[in-house]
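Q: Structure tokens for this one, please.
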Amino acid sequence: MPRVLRIINRLNLGGPTYNAAYLTKYLAPEFETLLVAGMKDDSEESSEFIVESMGIKPVYISNMQREINFTNDLKAYKEISKIIKEFKPDIVHTHAAKAGTLGRIAACNNNVPVVIHTFHGHVFHSYFSPLKTKIFIGIERFLSSISTGIVAISEEQKKDLCETYSVCNKNKTHIIPLGFDLDRFSTNTESKRTDFRKKYKLDDDVIAVGIIGRLVPIKNHSLFINAWKEINNQYNSKVHAFIIGDGEDRQKLEEHCKELGIIFNTPEKQIEGASLTLTSWIKNIDWAMAGLDIIALTSFNEGTPVSLIEAQAAGKPIVSTDVGGLANAVIPELTALLSESDDLQTFTNNLKRLIDDKSLRKSLADHGPAFANTHFGFTRLVNDMQILYNQLLMDKK
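A: Here is the predicted structure, written as tokens:
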């Protein structure tokens, strides 16, 4: 059977880990897969429990880390090359930027027949300075030229890669959306909801709004907090916000709440009368999703927003900024109300609409599950990838 060496930047919570895990687990027995992973940052929550729950034992490369460090990166490259020589893969499939750089160069230098890279997002705007962005675009153009195939996770992302930034050739770029096991978001929802709201002392009539993700600049949580200031002033005890996640921006966001006079809870400290709770990471996110009434997202840039796919599977209405591949991950006006990037007034107004209108919340919620399960189930992901692998292997014969 063909062998696949799958290389991922690091096992931190998010869509790439699920993508790599499902493909590693469920492409068998047609393909034998070895999963290789770098090391997560200390500020990130580990997602090792995801692969462990599937019985997957990754090979870890300690020198493959998020930050650019030429000494560590060279060591990681040599480790990958050694694995390639020992495992002898027919396909090397890389996920995200660092793995994509080191893995693709190593694969080409070791004459691997098929080299594939998945863009789970991109850093071509809102991340770095214009000069650094230009350098990264140049690097990705070179890496695309030595790749057999490129996987974009949405139509919008393919447009960015092939047209807006001219990084990839259209003919070798294939759209394969992410896939997830979404069943847990529709099972035992009432008991999960009761348990969540009991833990956080929420009355039944309180509307709980949650934003889920890493606390990093690209996620623009400040927009959510600014909107919450106005929401809380208007609705007071009828609403409560949850910021679920953690990261380098946590202290900055707590200071921002203090500046705006927003009383908030943290895992370390509970305050009477708080209207916002920072929970840090919650692994059983289906439990949290059941307890929430509205799911928000405020990012400057997104590949495929996992939290919004899960929200739709859970039957939750969405309020979000319209960035990156987001419009391909929701149905505007049917499952989500969207606003332009960093548009505080429209975002706030959309959130108010959902808080005020129970029937609108229900309408958006009702359209979500069928859309999410049809477009983002893991069986569809596995089938699509199997077809692509066989196609690229056949072309090499």
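A few notes: Residues 183-376 form a domain with the Rossmann fold fold (CATH 3.40.50.2000). The chain has two domains: 3-179+377-396, 183-376.
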